[in-house]
Amino acid sequence: MMDAYLYQRLGNGKVRCDLCSHRCVIKDGKRGICGVRENQKGELKSLVYGRLIAQHVDPIEKKPLFHVLPGTLSFSIATVGCNFRCRFCQNADIAQLPADREGMIMGESYTPEDVVAAALRADCRSIAYTYTEPTVFFEFAFDTAKLAHEKGLVNVFVTNGYMTSEALYMIQPYLDAANVDLKAFNDDFYKNQCAARRKHVMESLKLMKELGIFLEVTTLLIPGLNDDKKELEQLASFIVNDLGCETPWHISRFHPTYRLTDRSPTPVETIHQAREIGLNAGLRYVYCGNVPGDEGENTTCYSCGHALIRRWGFHISENNITNNKCPQCGVYIDGIGL
Fold first, then answer.
1. What integer is the mean pLDDT of 165-177?
2. Mean pLDDT of the 1-9 span
3. What is the pLDDT at residue 286?
4. What is the pLDDT of residue 169?
């Protein structure tokens, strides 16, 4: 347990958490929506500092991050908890554990020094704060990221993008890149499927861009809920106009899970159509996710069409980029360490 960052005392024993855009007002003895931050006699505490429920060595492509240190390993960590209630949560067993199990907190104790040392031993080039929402274990992520930078490691968030501007300004010096879920481009989806509001995610994305955090965006396409052609055109237009045409967009295939089991898997044709929408909107890099072996997994030069990186799932079979440049025409290929 540790004192939480970014909160205000409101009087009468209440506090307001300013870490995520819910900005929960929490009474004494109660927790915020995330289930892992508790008001204890007028002081907000993190219940998950250093209590890791997951730690794995992953290819960075699994995040998915295709334009950050391709072909390298990323030491990936998470605690329990999430500030969303996605009905299609792919990691509900840990992300929704406090919500579904009467506030249960699980995880083994680690220090930031433990995590950084493990990452270096495993020959990882980065640390990924992932699997659940890194915002809810912000204190541990911040302390670890600061130490990781001192040791030459890159830090990446895989996030729903619901953190406040205060949190982003605080973590920015140590956060190199993020893959942000832009789950849909309609407000009803965010309200009914995630218990959140779309506008806050869009605000975070724009601020991350302004702060120089390298962005990749992921959208999980769910049949009948967020796969409307016009909506996808609007989403792609937002990425191009507000984040930049250099922002990679991952369009992933849905499989029934958690509390959303009445939908069939996304047809591969729908993924291909969405990719075409992104490319036609002017995006340089649009990828098909959860479709191993698909041509849409590969990176090609947006200028001359030369094959740059060939992938099969999370495995790279060929990488022709040198110093972030296409070997054929010399154009700059956006990313970190390409």
1. 98
2. 95
3. 98
4. 98
Please give the pLDDT value at position 1.
82
In sequence order, the 6+-apart residues with CB closer than 8 A to the CB of 65 are 74, 156, 177, 179, 216
Domain 51-284, architecture per CATH: Alpha-Beta Barrel (3.20)
Looking at residue 112, its pLDDT comes to 98
Q: For residue 64, give both structure tokens.
A: 């998915």
Rounded mean pLDDT of the chain?
Answer: 97
Q: How far apart are CA 187 and CA 79, in angstroms?
A: 28
**How many residues are present in the chain?**
338
pTM over 0.85: yes
Q: Quick one: angle between helices 268-281 and 229-238, nearest 10?
A: 40
Burial of residue 13 (number of CB atoms within 10 Å: 0-12, 13-18, 19+): middle
CA distance 197 to 220: 17
**What pLDDT shows up at residue 326?**
98
226, 192 in Cβ contact below 8 A?
Answer: no
Contacts of residue 107, Cβ cutoff 8 Å, sequence gap at least 6 = 48, 51, 52, 53, 79, 80
CA nearest to 224, candidates 180, 187, 194, 254: 254
Is 90 exceeded by the pLDDT of residue 85? yes
Strand partners for 251: 219, 288
Q: Average pLDDT for residues 14-37, to the nearest whole number? A: 98
Q: Give the start-to-end residue ranges of the domains of the chain.
A: 2-46, 51-284
Identify the band that residue 209 occupies on the pLDDT scale cut at 50, 70 and 90. very high
Distances 332 to 66, 228, 245, 323 between C-alpha atoms, Å: 15, 33, 13, 9
